[in-house]
Amino acid sequence: KKQAWQWQWAGYTHGRATPRTLTGRPPRMMHFGYRRDDEPTGMVLRVGLDDTLYSGGQGKKIDVWCTDTNTHLYTLEGHTDWVYALAVARDGTVYTGSGDKTVRVWSAEDGSHLDTLEGHTRGVMTLAVGADGTLYSGSSDDTIRVWANRQGGSRHLRTLEVASVAFLALGKDAKVYTGCWDRFIHVWSTVDGSHVGTLLGHAHDVNAVAVGTDGTVYSG
User: Fold this and answer.
1) How would you write the chain as a 3-class SS string?
2) pLDDT digits (tens, 9 = 90+) for 36-50
3) What is the pLDDT of residue 43?
4) pLDDT 10s digits, 90-123
5) How confident is the prediction for the chain on average, in pLDDT?
C-alpha cells in the first residue's frame, strides 16, 4: 500500500522523524494528456516561469506551451533516449535529464541548446535546481552529481553516492532530500555533500518528495 507522508524536520532526532499519514480524497482531480504526430508523450509535465508548460518525454523531446493562449511555442530536441526529468532555474534556464545519461541545458526564451552535461553512467531520472543556480542530477547509476552554474557553462562540483535514487527535492534549510527505492529518504547537506540523516517509515519505494515553504517534507 502506497502512502503519502508529511514530515516535520524539526522533529528529527538521531536519524528518525515522526511522520503524519495523509488520507482521504482530493477535492478535485484533473487529467491531462495529448498526442502529437500520433506519438504518445507524458513522462514530464511541469509549469515553468510565466506559466509556461513543459510536457513530453517518451518521444525523446519536450514540447513547450503558452498556457495563456494554449499555443505551442517550440520543441526541445536533442536527447537520444526518453526524457525523465525537467527543472527550471530562477533565471529561466531549463535542464532536462534523459535515459541517454546526459543533462541538456536550454534557453527558456527560444529553446536553443546551451550545453550538455556528461558524467553519469546510467539514465538521469531526477533534477532539482537551487536558488543559487546549483543543479542536482540524480541517476540510476546510484549517484547524484552536483553542478555549479557558471557564466558560459556548468561545472561539476561533487558526486554523492546514493543507492537507488528515484527522486530528489531541495529544502530551504541547506538540505537535499532523496527518495529512494530502498524505502528511505536520505538527507544531505548542500554545503559539503555530507549525509546528515535518514527518514524512515515507508514500506515500499519512495518515488516522490516535495518540500513546503515552511520546511515540511512530503513523500509518497
Assistant:
1) CCCEEEECHHHCECCECCCEEECCCCCCCCCCCCEECCEECCCEEEECHHHEEEEECCCCEEEEEECCCCEEEEEEECCCCCEEEEEECCCCCEEEEECCCCEEEECCCCCCEEEEECCCCCCEEEEEECCCCCEEEEECCCEEEEEEEECCEEEEEEEEECCCEEEEEECCCCEEEEEECCCCEEEEECCCCCEEEEECCCCCCCCCEEECCCCCEEEC
2) 333 434 467 778 878
3) 67
4) 888 999 999 999 999 999 889 999 999 999 999 9
5) 78
